[in-house]
Amino acid sequence: MLDFEPEDVALPPGHFIGGKSAQGGPSLEVRRPSDGKLLAFVPDASAEIVDEAVSNAQQAWQESGWGHRPPRERGRVLRRWADLIDTHAGELARLESVGSTRPIRDSFSHEVPFSAECIRFFAECADKFGGDAVPTRRDSLGLILTEPYGVVGAIAPWNFPLSMASWKCGPALAAGNAIVLKPSELTPFSTVRFAELAVQAGVPAGVFNVIQGRGAVAGSALVKHPLIRKVSFTGSTLTGAAVMTDAAHHGMKPVTLELGGKSPQLVYADAGDLDTLADRVVRGFTSNAGQACVSGSRLIVQRGIAEQLLEKIAAMVASVRPGLTWREATRYAPLINERQAMKVDAAVRDSLACGAAAYCGGGFFEHELGGYFYRPTVLTGVDDGMLAVREEIFGPVLTVQVFDEEEQGLALADHPTYGLAACVHTQDLGRAMRATRRLAAGTVWVNRFGRTGDFIIPTGGFKGSGIGKDLGRQAFESNLRYKSVLIDF
């Protein structure tokens, strides 16, 4: 039984600097998305607190020699960390669910084990990838050496707090860096316990620090800090642009950005069983109530099956019911807060005013829970100029556009701003490959929607959806800098 009571969860206090809890900065309210009630207060780090955390990380990194330890030794430490994550799965899952949009069943069965496996994957990268000896003139030796940057600054989003933290911490630490992580001020707790377990596993105290606070203050100070040599950020495209600007103006440091998306689900008439297909499409836009950067929020369907597919989608979402994230029976997530809820509703209303029609859903569930639960909404009669098609909504809203010919469908699938992910549903291999090559997206799924535990496959966007990669060998290598050496005999 995974049910728990929010009041029974012990919340880690404040920042985590030098292996210890620390306070500092004015307090921020943290509210539970499920019922809107006050959960706790966390400090809002000032630039001085950020400096303390980064300076501590730099000192710990130098004194511990973490970056110069044998790679296999770093790997062993990270594997012990992953084992501790599994051992404390229940505790971490409750911390994840009490103050986020992740139902406890999902946190326990997916977020925590996914995070542990992510750490294990990067632990194995530690001694697998690195420098090289390269062919040069006969009387010389060419080497490409790799070395860690030093201190990496990471900013994680609120929608998947723990797994997003693992994406950033795993490769940075495996490559020999120290890391200062700022979780979202909306979901600050599970990552602190995450860091505590890392130190318990043998990561030197200070090599993994956590600061709390708002992005505009703590996040900006972190990116701008002169000792931060690399930045990794996941969040909105607008904020990503600000991060990139700050990094360029304060040290010209490299950045990895996983940003917004407006992912198409391109469905051809030969896609196969409609019940299976409808289930895929529904999961693609309702998972975490649509609060995912890869959410499949644009259905582009061939005319021959459009009406039948929509009928099945409407029937499936009709059974969705809101629930508290600390109840095992809950399958459908709340929106994170009132601000996000109003943004989702405004986007739907704007599109309806411009001529779209609500095939199903629209508006909030009527309930007595206290949180913001939005009905899965399907909008038909849309065009590319409508807000619901044009902008990332970050809610359970699916727009529908119908096409006749293959070329028309591909043109509709291409978005002028975003290119994070896309999926293609067809039983024709040739058509699937043509679409895969044509779609301007960093990830293309065929006859599925969503990531798996195959951490070797990198993720990252094209266009306004970001630069660089998380996961995969590419994520590990992006946490190393490369030095060319040429030796004459």
Outline, from the CA principal axes? globular
* Physical arrangement of strands within the biggest beta sheet: 14-15-16-13-12-18-19
Q: Kindly provide the radius of gyration, computed on alpha-carbon positions and rounded to a whole number of angstroms.
A: 23 Å
Domain count, please report it.
Answer: 2
Figure out the total of helices: 15
Largest sheet: 7 strands, mixed
CATH topology of the largest domain: Aldehyde Dehydrogenase, Chain A, domain 1
Number of strands: 22
Name the helicity range: 25-40%
CATH 4th-level superfamily of the largest domain: Aldehyde Dehydrogenase, Chain A, domain 1
Could you say which structural class the secondary elements and strand pairing correspond to?
alpha/beta
Cα(first) to Cα(last) distance is: 69 Å
Low-pLDDT ranges? none
The overall pLDDT average reads 97
What's the CATH architecture name of the largest domain?
3-Layer(aba) Sandwich
Main attributes?
seven-stranded mixed beta sheet; alpha/beta; single chain; 38% helix; 22 strands; Aldehyde Dehydrogenase, Chain A, domain 2; six-stranded mixed beta sheet; Aldehyde Dehydrogenase, Chain A, domain 1; 489 residues
Short description:
The protein has 489 residues and is α/β, with parallel strands linked by helices.
